[in-house]
Amino acid sequence: MGICGYFVVSWKCLVVIALRLLFLVPAGVPARSGESSFSKPMDNVTVRQGDNAILRCTLDNRVTRVAWLNRSTILFAGVDKWSTDPRVVLLNNTLTEYSIKIKDVDVYDEGPYVCTILTNNKPKASRVHLIVQVPPKIVNISSDITVNEGSTITLMCLAIGRPEPTVMWKHLSMRGQRFVNEGEYLEITEISKDQSGVYECSSSNDVSAPDIRTVRVTVNYPPYIFHARSRGAPLGQKGVLECEASAVPVADFEWYKEDRSSDRQRLIYSSNEKLSNGLNGVKIENKGRQSMLIFFNVSEEDYGNYTCVAMNMMGITNASIILYGPGAVHDVNSAALSPHNLLSLLLTIILQYFLKF
Fold this sequence. Notes:
The structure is a single chain. The longest helix is centred in the last third of the chain and has 17 residues, at 339-355. Strands 1, 3, 4, 5, 8, 9, 11 and 14 form an eight-stranded mixed sheet that branches. Strands 10, 12, 13, 15, 16, 18, 21 and 22 form an eight-stranded mixed sheet that branches. The chain has a five-stranded mixed sheet with strand order 17-24-23-19-20, covered by helices on one side. Strand 6 (88-93) and strand 7 (97-102) form a beta hairpin. It is 8% helix and 51% strand. The protein has two helices and 24 strands. By secondary structure, the chain is mainly beta. The chain has helices spanning 11-22, 339-355, and strands spanning 45-48, 53-58, 65-70, 73-77, 80-81, 88-93, 97-102, 111-119, 122-141, 145-148, 153-162, 166-173, 176-182, 185-188, 197-204, 211-228, 231-232, 239-248, 252-259, 264-270, 282-287, 290-295, 304-312, 315-324.
């Protein structure tokens, strides 16, 4: 089997190989006389992947023969190169130093290296362990995702590197950056709309700058109207009623006017229509989450109670708004529908919404 076995080369075995090699080194190696010594044991050499590694062996003027080995492979014996790897070069061969350089170091270069010397047929060896550090790299990350409010999601961020990188998640929301979790997997249970936005995965191991990737999480939620105020407008002038709703996906708007004669709500406008329905001199403008009902020339018939309805695939909501004339006294907070009218209106809207599909 040989002195070291076929597959595993221990430190002890490597040193034995190195010492035996010294007796086979060609006579062309410069001869030195006396007893050798090392001023101190060699330290580990740590380099980053892609950089150059320099392995130094400190000598004195009594050394006769020298060599560098990697595992069971002879790299250099004196000035003679035995390695076929073009990246390995002899850097110094002087009375005080015998060093080699490995260019463009990669992870497979990591491991034990032995410098052997011979003095008066008395071999000695010094060993060094080459450690190759690898910058962090994210190799797999979750794609952007859209979920409904209340769902549970798991985000994944897999990274490699040497030393093993630390993976951290941060939530980059409009309220500011916030640490969320440490680890490759981030689980969010019963997600809310406030937890939507960009999530940043950072992989770091102090070898180089962190590797950073992001995942966008979109949370669908039903509309809620946060701005709807009653307004006054004189006859013959312009009047505007505004309704703003937050929702994902963006809400569709419909406007209804209370019919005084029948005590029912009459549809004025739907988001899917280009023109107003049923009233002259009225224009609807939708801009994102805002809908405006514009009266260019307010008449007596225009005064009354209007209902703004906001809806999307997640739900539906409404708010009542009053357009009133000068001097009219209105309780803005009481501009709401009766339970009977509200139920009737909601059933009508829901039926119309589903008939679209």
